Amino acid sequence: MSDDTVPVTVTIFDKEFRIACPPEEKEGLETSARYVNEMMIQLRDSGRIIGTEKIAVMAALHIAHELLSNRQNHQRQHGYSPQLRQRLRALDDQVRAVLHAAKQFDV
After folding, report:
1. Which residues form the domain of 11?
2. What is the pLDDT of residues 69-105, one digit of tens each?
3. At what angle do helices 82-104 and 52-78 cross, to 10 degrees?
4. DSSP H or E run through 24
5. How far apart are CA 73 and CA 41, in angstroms?
6. Does residue 16 lie within any of the structural domains?
7. Domains in the chain: how many in total?
């Protein structure tokens, strides 16, 4: 961990992940982790998908679809503001970090 990051422990699908992130992104990372966890629980509880790995992949696909749909809708209506581009990049980084951590822990 570098000096400009803090350790953040999040729980997704009953597994803990310790992730380093800048202090100003801690809240966003925790919110993202809760969202991923909720999506995975929702998919598991639907009974249509069996297996943690499949549930994780389907959750990632659902979240990516939501992100891309929202991005397209917003761009059609307003174009991208610099703030939105920055926020979307931050969300994308957070999703990638969670997926990378999940891959490392064989979720």
Report:
1. 6-104
2. 988 887 777 766 778 778 888 888 888 888 877 776 6
3. 170
4. none
5. 27
6. yes
7. 1
CB 26 within 8 A of CB 14: no
Q: What is the average pLDDT across 26-40?
A: 96
What 3-state class would DSSP assign to 18? strand
pTM: 0.67
Average pLDDT for residues 27-51, to the nearest whole number? Answer: 95
Residue 1 in any domain: the answer is no
CATH of the domain at 75: 3.30.160.880
If you ran DSSP here, which 8-state letter would residue 83 be given?
H
Backbone angles phi, psi at 8, to 5 degrees: -125, 130
Q: Please, which residues have CB within 8 angstroms of residue 42's CB and are 6 or more apart in sequence?
A: none
E-strand ranges in 32-95 read none
Vertex 101 angle, CA 83 and 91, to 5°: 10
